[in-house]
Amino acid sequence: MLKIRTYNNISPLGLEKFPRDRYEVASEIQHPDAILLRSFDLHGVEIPATVKAVGRAGAGVNNIPVSEYTQRGVPVFNAPGANANAVKELVLAGMLLAARKICDAWNYAKHLEGDDDSIHHQVEKGKKAFVGFELTGKTLGVLGLGAIGVKVANAAIDLGMNVIGYDPLLTVESAWMLSSKVARASSVDDLISRSDLVTLHVPLGEQTRHLINGPRLGFMKKGAVLLNFSRSPVVDEDAVRAALDSGQLQTYVCDFPGQALLSHAKAIVLPHLGASTHEAEENCAIMVAERVRDFLENGNIRHS
Ligand code: MLT
């Protein structure tokens, strides 16, 4: 009997990939053959010596000490692309929230008081503060053209935007999926200096920590919008705060906020919702469970 320890929030559809006649799957298992988790942070956690594989039901693996496990011969599996649709849709929502000032406008409208005549008067008077801009014809820079970045880029083309992409590690698969209408930037700086909105789709690692920093924010167009559906340390949040304060950035939209920007009036912050759809949770759990099972039963290592 093989044993799988689950840490949190794994869709039952993924767990069903481990047939009960051959697997025991539970959170309290003492000597598991594999670990399956979503956002639980394994850094500093001593995992049992019996663990032969770790699976993350998502794309990012920054909550797992991957190189430490790799040195121990424990492969880490993820679910690349399985939640790309969900993230893409939330990025589109984020662009619209910023462009049409929807959060501030909603906040204004829901606090109106009085009878209908008075509210209508306040609506017409107050709406002047919420004049936005159209995405059509604007330039979106997509930094990172993996499964999510490609979907965002293609969807933005469909919205009538001009799209520029940059990814020094572009795979053949992504290149195939990418619309031919997406222009290519020659560098990060080239991309951000030409874009009205910039969206980040890079994994968090030593090379991408503070990828967007003070000098780079200075290269952006004045009044640009920055969207971060990656991880908060990909940007230097203190520098973003300064750019929002000075008007260099119009809005920062972030799905994984750090403390520095939580309550900033020009930041739209979400509690890590990019992959939080029923469909994405199921897709991720199923994909990673299949990979872990394929490894345990056949020794296959599938990473893409
Ligand atoms: C991801 O890395 O794909 C997401 O963080 C998944 C999640 O929301 O758990």
Between the first and last Cα atoms, what is the distance in angstroms? 28 Å
Radius of gyration: 22 Å
Oligomer: single chain
Question: What is the global morphology?
Answer: globular
Distinct ligands: D-malate
For this structure, the CATH topology of the largest domain is Rossmann fold
Number of strands: 12
Helix content: 25-40%
Q: What is the tally of helical segments?
A: 11
Low-confidence stretches: none
Assigned CATH class of the largest domain:
Alpha Beta
| Sheet with the most strands: spatial strand order | 8-7-6-9-10-11-12
β-strand percent reads: 15-25%
Could you say how many structural domains there are in total?
2
CATH homologous superfamily heading of the largest domain: NAD(P)-binding Rossmann-like Domain
Average of per-residue pLDDT values: 96
Function: Catalyzes the reversible oxidation of 3-phospho-D-glycerate to 3-phosphonooxypyruvate, the first step of the phosphorylated L-serine biosynthesis pathway. Also catalyzes the reversible oxidation of 2-hydroxyglutarate to 2-oxoglutarate.
GO molecular function, one term: NAD binding
Catalytic activity: (R)-2-hydroxyglutarate + NAD(+) = 2-oxoglutarate + NADH + H(+); (2R)-3-phosphoglycerate + NAD(+) = 3-phosphooxypyruvate + NADH + H(+)
EC number: 1.1.1.399, 1.1.1.95
Descriptive notes:
By secondary structure, this protein is of the alpha/beta class. The protein has two domains: 2-82 and 278-298, Rossmann fold; 84-269, Rossmann fold. Helix content is 36%, strand content 16%. It contains eleven helices and twelve strands. The chain has helices at residues 12-15, 66-71, 84-99, 102-110, 116-126, 147-158, 172-177, 188-194, 214-219, 237-246, 278-298; strands spanning 2-6, 23-26, 34-37, 53-56, 76-77, 139-143, 162-166, 183-184, 197-200, 224-228, 249-254, 267-269. The strands form two sheets. Strands 8-7-6-9-10-11-12 form a seven-stranded parallel beta sheet, with helices on both faces. A five-stranded parallel beta sheet has the order 2-1-3-4-5. Strand 1, helix 1 (12-15) and strand 2 form a beta-alpha-beta unit. The radius of gyration is 22 Å and the shape is globular. The relative contact order is 0.15. The model has no long low-confidence stretch (mean pLDDT 96). D-malate binds at residues 38-39, 58-60, 83, 272, 275.
